[in-house]
Amino acid sequence: MTHEEYQKKENEIIEEILKNAKKRSLSGQEVKRKKNTISINKSKFYKSLSVLIATTFVAGGLTLGMPEKIINHVTDKRIVSDQIIDCHDEVINNVKSRTEDGKGFYLDYKNIAEYIKSEEDFDKAVYLVHEAIEMENLDDIDNQMDRVFEYTDFEDYSSYLDARGFNDSEEFEEASKKEILLESRIHDKTIELEELNSKYPKTDGKYESKGENSL
Amino acid sequence: MKDIEIVEIDNKKYGIMKEIIYKDTTYLYLSNIDDNQDVMIRKLKDNDTIIPLDNGKEFDIASTLLLKDSII
Fold first, then answer.
1. Do A25 and B40 touch (CB under 8 A)?
2. Does the pTM exceed 0.95?
């Protein structure tokens, strides 16, 4: 599937969700609020919220002619959060165990460190793990990271940041986020360029002739 | 894990993912627990009754509120 086809398909899905959402929002039964609660996986929560936002994005944003800058801002947010959610699902969720009293849970820091070390892009893995652990609402995220770094060549999280030339975690997070966005844009633009090149092939700096009158 | 409030509408369970108060109205943003592509917006009447929105215009307003909330 080409990049354009993928985007078209995604837009069709969102438009279908929007159409159904509008229909359901305006009809159906009245119900009493009972304040019943359930616990759901955080990544499931964020994915559902993300669908809701994407739907309202089309309904409330594009119909109001929102500026491209805002549209890009929302898209950027989704690009980064999708990767964090994937890391949460595939890494953090698999190393979580319930405490004996069943009230809390603990993480297998050694396994998380092994994951980071096995990744081609070590620094990006550190960032994604940091954000994915944060999704668990654990106290003192830097302390959680210190425990992960016990199983690496670094003494702790702050010595890792120091070694990489960052003043603090915020600076590191900002740089990592920016890198993910730029990588994603490069990836998308590369696909676009490939599609353009395949539509209008070039040889020696010239578009290939398709007619008889070319020079 | 995250605790969310659920409501049953038309025999389906929806989680209240977000609540936004605008002027005198509280809007609820709901997502089907078993199918996250099934979403809807409702509002509160008398603080304890969840009712459908009045019309398409109100849907657009409520959508814009969530959109703004997610950007800021």
1. yes
2. no
